[in-house]
């Protein structure tokens, strides 16, 4: 019984040491994360193997694991850039990005954990300056927002090529112009709209006038044709037809044949 404590003590010490070693060697990688393994005595960062995935891992206590978020992330940027005529424009944009999973070791080795500040922010700022500098404030304000969004995305993506980062989207949320420029553009747009409306009214009035002229010309032509076709003979024939119909009517009247002008009948009623 007296020897038991002497045997138990080393066991307890060994167990404590084992727990400490396991605590230093155990790594838990959470959801949406991955780990880059750094081998202290074997060439440092591991770049020729996939990163450590989600879950529990045991590594040698002298090695390290650097954990990265590998989900899609969002960067918000407010940038002041110059338009094609030198005016200062503020662009509010955001970029969706994520590290390339299988290149996480290379990303850590070449750029480190602050890769956002090292490459992504400078890339999107440079692309925004380049793209916005091609357009006037009026184009940026009215019709070119989608175009500059696509162009900033394309140029940023080109800059980030081979930087172990994947750019998914660039969104231009707002374009802010100096108030004086904004008011001048809005005034010009209103004037252009009023001019278009006035031209539309003129065109509509011209078409209506043309329609009236055509209708009047048609009536005049019809009357001229009708007048030319009504000879005395036709009028006499029509008068005779009317006389026959009147004579067959039960209404009280007196029909005098051949007493009117050109031999047309005169019809006398009882009133």
Automatic annotation (TrEMBL):
Tell me the domain of life. Answer: Bacteria
Q: Which residues form the Band domain?
A: 24-189
What are the subcellular locations of this protein? Membrane
Report the membrane topology from the UniProt record: Single-pass membrane protein
Q: What Gene3D superfamilies does this protein's entry cite?
A: Band 7 domain
Identify the Pfam families for this entry: Band_7
Q: What is this protein called?
A: Prohibitin family protein
């Amino acid at each position: 019984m007296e020897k038991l404590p002497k045997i138990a003590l080393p066991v307890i010490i060994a167990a404590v040491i084992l727990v400490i070693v396991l605590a230093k060697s155990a790594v838990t990688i959470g959801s949406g994360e991955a780990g880059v393994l750094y081998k202290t005595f074997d060439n440092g960062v591991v770049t020729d193997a996939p990163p450590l995935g989600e879950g529990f891992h045991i590594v040698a206590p002298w090695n390290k694991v650097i954990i990265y978020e590998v989900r899609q992330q969002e960067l918000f940027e407010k940038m002041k850039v110059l338009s094609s005529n030198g005016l200062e424009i503020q662009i509010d944009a955001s970029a969706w990005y994520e590290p390339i999973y299988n290149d996480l070791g290379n990303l850590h080795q070449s750029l480190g954990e602050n890769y956002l500040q090292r490459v992504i922010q400078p890339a999107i700022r440079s692309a925004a300056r380049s793209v916005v500098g091609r357009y006037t404030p009026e184009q940026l304000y009215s019709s070119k927002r989608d175009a500059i969004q696509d162009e900033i995305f394309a140029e940023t993506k080109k800059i980030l090529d081979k930087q172990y980062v994947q750019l998914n989207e660039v969104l231009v949320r707002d374009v802010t112009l100096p108030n004086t420029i904004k008011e001048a553009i809005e005034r010009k747009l209103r004037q252009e709209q009023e001019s278009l409306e006035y031209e539309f009214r003129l065109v509509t009035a011209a078409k209506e006038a043309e329609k009236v002229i055509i209708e009047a010309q048609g009536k005049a032509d019809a009357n001229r044709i009708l007048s030319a076709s009504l000879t005395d003979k036709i009028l006499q024939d029509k008068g005779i037809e009317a006389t026959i119909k009147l004579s067959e009517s039960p209404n009280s009247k007196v029909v005098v044949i051949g007493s009117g002008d050109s031999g047309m009948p005169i019809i006398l009623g009882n009133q």
